[in-house]
Amino acid sequence: MAENRQPKRYPQNLGGVLQLAVDAGSAAEGPSPIEPMSEERKLWLKGALAEVCKGQMDEVEQIKKCLEVLKHERDAENERGEEERGEEDEDERESIFDILSELCENLDNARDLMTLGGLDLSISQYLCHSRSGLRWRAAHLIASCAQNMPQVQIHLLKLGALPKLLQLTDSDPNPTVRVKALYAVSCLVREQEEGLKEFLSNDGYSVLMRGMQSDNEKLRTKSAFLLLNLLMAEPEQKDTVVSMGMVQQLVSVLRTPHSPVHEHVLGALCCLVEECPKGLKDCSTPALGLEELLKQRFKELKGKEESEEELEFCERLRGLCFHGPQADDNGMDR
């Protein structure tokens, strides 16, 4: 009877969870006589539990050892006299960052790295390092730790990470550094109110605009993608973005040779004209030539399965701006 059931008691620690799993496995095999656990079984369980705990502790110790290497500063004499050794040291540090990035895919490890001062070190010493391989790896580590971790995001914002990352995105001479820095920016501002406020105060949209005009294809695409996502998540920013001349800049990007960035640009333009009179006016200005550009783009992409979403944006944008009819088999005009 239901009234005779005893309330469930849930395990309070890892050992209890392990015991619960063992009990559940036994229950699945059918009723068996209740017998006290043998000493051999107790020793096995104790060893298994120790291995689980040891694995986690090993990772924390590994993080500590990595940070010891990153904190190590060669004295001035060594820097002057052992140039080859200095190159080896920097190779080692790059490997250390790779290890930390892999470890910090685990959220607990990311939190431990923050507590141990690893993020502070990455910002203060390595985002501005002379070696590009260390700069981009530091940015990548910051992104890995910040992603989906509000506690880490707030910590990084308090450390002043965002302005430094925006500067790297905007002007670093190394293309990989710029892309990784933008990845870290994205992890600090998407669905993060404080991060978005700081992004705005540091003219982040202008950084994205310049990123879309870059010769670096990855940076162009990722800048447009972040712009699209921010406009979708924060529609109240549309007027601010339009007032910067973003519509004109986006259309100029559409006039470049076709590339993956165009899909995100068209999506961003759709966002900027929906429920935004100023954006609609800018897009509809005859001098911009957007209507003819959309017609031409539609003809180029029609029938290409991989371009379906871009085609949808073309039709949607034309309908919003020019009240055009739906496309037929011959193109966008009936």
Categorize the overall geometry.
elongated
Low-pLDDT residue intervals, each spanning 5 or more residues: 1-13, 74-78, 324-334
First-to-last CA distance? 72 Å
In N-to-C order, the SSE pattern is HHHHHHHHHHHHHHHHHHH
Number of helical regions: 19
What's the total count of β strands? 0
- Estimated structural class: mainly alpha
What is the alpha-carbon Rg in Å?
A: 28 Å
Mean pLDDT: 84
Oligomer: single chain
Kindly state the percentage of residues in helix: over 70%
Strand content: under 5%
Main beta sheet strand tally, sense and closure: none
Descriptive report:
It contains 19 helices and no strands. It has helices spanning 14-28, 39-71, 76-81, 83-103, 107-115, 118-126, 132-146, 150-158, 161-171, 175-189, 193-201, 204-212, 217-233, 238-243, 246-254, 261-273, 277-284, 290-301, 308-322. With 334 residues, it is mainly alpha-helical. It is elongated, with a radius of gyration of 28 Å. The model is unreliable at 1-13, 74-78 and 324-334 (pLDDT under 50). The chain is 72% helix and 0% strand. Pfam families: Arm, Fes1.
Task: Summarize this entry quickly.
With 334 residues, the chain is mainly α. The chain has helices spanning 14-28, 39-71, 76-81, 83-103, 107-115, 118-126, 132-146, 150-158, 161-171, 175-189, 193-201, 204-212, 217-233, 238-243, 246-254, 261-273, 277-284, 290-301, 308-322.
Short key terms for the protein model shown above:
single chain; 334 residues; mainly alpha; 19 helices; 0% strand; disordered N terminus; disordered C terminus; Armadillo; phosphoprotein; Hsp70-binding protein 1
